[in-house]
Structures are given as C-alpha cells and as structure tokens.
Amino acid sequence: MINRAIVPVVRAALEEQAAVALLGPRQVGKTTLALEIARQSDAIYLDLQKASDRAKLSDPPAFLELHEKRLVILDEVHRTPDLFPVLRGVIDEGRRRGHRTGRFLILGSASTDLLRQSGESLAGRIRYLDLGPIHPGEVDPGADETLWVRGGFPDSFLARSDGESLAWRDDLIRTYLERDIPQFGPRIPSETLRRFWTMLAHTQGGLHNAARLAAGLEISGQTVGRYTDLLVDLLLVRRLASYSVNAGKRLVKSPKVYIRDSGLLHALLGIDDRDSLLGHPVVGGSWEGFVIESLLAVAPLRTVPGFYRTSGGAEVDLVLELPGGKRWAVEIKRSPAATPSRGFHEGFSDLEAERGWVVHSGSGRHPLRDRIQSIGLRDLMTELTGLRESNRGRKRSRLP
C-alpha cells in the first residue's frame, strides 16, 4: 500500500469537525484510505452502492444513533442525497450529548453535486478535502518518470508493465464514458464525449477555445461548456483561471485547461511509454500539467492557483496566491539547465511576487536573480509542504 500524505490531514480534520468529505475521482484510492483509517479506529463502513448497506439506512436516525460513538464512513454518498438533512439532525443531536467531532467520513466522486447537497444541510458541520492521484512526494524519487508516464491512479502506477497500465487506463476511460458520466449529467453520447475529451488532451495546457471545439464536434458552444463543466466536476479536468492584478495591462482572460492525471492524458492520445511521450508534441503540456497537479497537491489549504498572461507577452505558467495574500510565480521547464523567459521576468514584476521559481525535472536549487531560483520539482514540493504544515500548526494552536 502506498502511504498517502493526506492521511494525517484527514485524521486531524476528524478531530476538529463532525463530518469530513473526501473528494476525488474514481479509483484514486478513497475507499482504500478510508478503510485504513477504519482499521485504526472504531469505525463502521457502509458502501451505498450495495443494496444491503443502503437497507441498513432504511431508518437512518435509528441506525446512526446506535453507532453514535463510532466513526461512520459513507462511500458513494451521492447515491443517497436525501441522507444529508438526516445527518444534520444526527450531528446536532450528538453535539448536545457531547459527541462533537469525528462522526462521519463521506466519500464522493463528483465535487459539485456533493458540495451542493451537503452544503445545503451541513454548513458549519463539514470540512472538504481533496484526494488526487498519487504525487511524487508519495513515491520513491526513482519512480518519478514512471509516475509521470502512467499517472497517479494506484492500479495504473503499480501495474507490472506499461502495456498493462495503459490497458487499465483505457478501461477506466471506457467505464467513465459508458457508466459513470451518465449518472452525473444529461445523457451524452459516449463517442461524442470521448472525442471531446481527446480534443482537450491534444490542447493540454492551452487556452480554452470553446468555439473551435464546438466547430470540431459540430455542437453548440453551450454544449461544449456543459461537457467541460461535467469533466471538471468529476475532477478529471482542471480549468486554471487567469489571474488578475491591477497592472494596467490587457490580460488574457480565457482559462487554460488540463487533463488532471497525466496517465489519462497519455491514454487518450495513445501514448504507451516514455520514449513515445518524449517524441510527442504534447510532452511540454503533459509535464506542465503534471507539475501543476503535484504542486497543488501539497500547497497550503486555501491557496488560489491561476496563470498570468498579457497581450504584450508577459507570462507566468502558475501563480500561487498563498494564505495571507503573498504570491509565488512559477515557470515550468523540463530541463534543469533551462532559464526563465523574458515574459516570466515581466510577469514576475507585474505580480509583485514574493518569490519566483523555475521548476524543472532535476534536483537541487540555485539562484538566478533576486528572489528567483531554479529548483527541482520535489524541492519546491518540500517548500510548499513546509508552508502547509506551518499553517496547520498555527491553526491548531489557536483551537481552544
């Protein structure tokens, strides 16, 4: 089993809040993580895909009151949206009896539906945490290239061969298209959605051009927006917003779009191994997306990501607005010998960034100019992890 870095974060959240929602795409390891937490605590696990487990909740207040002193793990909770108002009453009743924290761990695969359903009923009673695919900080350094090629879904990363890994990812994509996506949105022809998903893969890291996608698929721009929203909601696509500052310059406003898992990106494009990837036009966008997801996986909570680009050529691949309002500017390169572009220096100045980083695939760091350093991906992840732990420590020290 791969030790996931989020486990202590989940445990800490359960010590502070009545309910914790763990959001992530299918097959990313939510259930495995929850069962590991269950084995180390007094917990009961219910898989709401199973009729037998749903039957246990035929009288939810009675069943949950019976297990009031135990952690109750609810998997596939989106299947029972009527449960959320009940949870509110159960949590409030428990609070009056002194059971204030660690009541429910809720697992979900579609962020918007779950946030809406739970937010309407559990405001002030629930904390949301994201579990993404495995990131470099969770594997040995020698496995970074394999992780990039295969992606971070555990079964894909741990496959015995690249061919077996690719076959697993192809199966996952087909399952999403034919079974999972129809559960969360209007009926969409699977072949049309596959073509759309593949078109997004070909433009990895590019500006989102809905009109061009609509023309290529012979559908409306509104339909493209609906398809994109659905894939973002299922945590399969990241829409990186343009970051705005009052620099008096004309900004590019369209978002950039990434397939969040590099392995799914490569499967959509038929890339089966590292050699094929290095010779493919998407290699730069693939590496950029891999770095962005890796950094955001360890960034402090409430970090706001974006990118910065002006019509005059200033450009920053990733802007991180950290808690407290400080900004970091990140340029993403594959080669450790790469130097920042003129556009990055201009963007760094426009943003009035506290720190600038040119992140690459190697290790170590060295200064490039005042407040800008060249740094390896793992080293920058360590910087962000340290900030996250520091912020969490300060928050916990303020608790009564």
What is the strand content? 15-25%
- Note the main sheet: 6 strands, mixed
Number of domains: 3
- Gross geometry: globular
Share in helix: 40-55%
CATH-level-4 superfamily name of the largest domain: Winged helix-like DNA-binding domain superfamily/Winged helix DNA-binding domain
Rounded radius of gyration (Å): 22 Å
Number of helices: 17
Number of strands: 13
Distance between the termini: 36 Å
Strand order of the largest sheet: 8-9-10-11-13-12
Q: What do the pLDDT scores average to?
A: 90
Instruction: Give me the strand/helix succession.
Output: HEHEHHEHEHEHHHHHHEEHHHEEEHEEEH
Q: What structural category arises from helix and sheet content?
A: alpha/beta
Low-confidence stretches are: none
CATH architecture of the largest domain: Orthogonal Bundle
Give the C-level CATH assignment of the largest domain: Mainly Alpha
The CATH topology of the largest domain is given as: Arc Repressor Mutant, subunit A
Can you describe what's shown?
With about 400 residues, this protein is α/β, with parallel strands linked by helices. The chain folds into three domains: about 5-130, Rossmann fold (3-Layer(aba) Sandwich); about 135-295, Arc Repressor Mutant, subunit A (Orthogonal Bundle), CATH 1.10.10; about 300-390, Trna Endonuclease, Chain: A, domain 1 (3-Layer(aba) Sandwich). It has helices at about 5-15, 30-40, 50-55, 60-65, 85-95, 110-120, 145-150, 155, 160-185, 190-200, 210-215, 220-235, 260-270, 275-280, 285-300, 340-350, 375-400, and strands spanning about 20-25, 45, 70-75, 105-110, 125-130, 235-240, 255-260, 305-310, 315-320, 325-330, 355-360, 365-370, 370-375. β10 (about 325-330), α16 (about 340-350) and β11 (about 355-360) form a beta-alpha-beta unit. The chain starts with 6 loop residues before the first helix and ends with a helix.
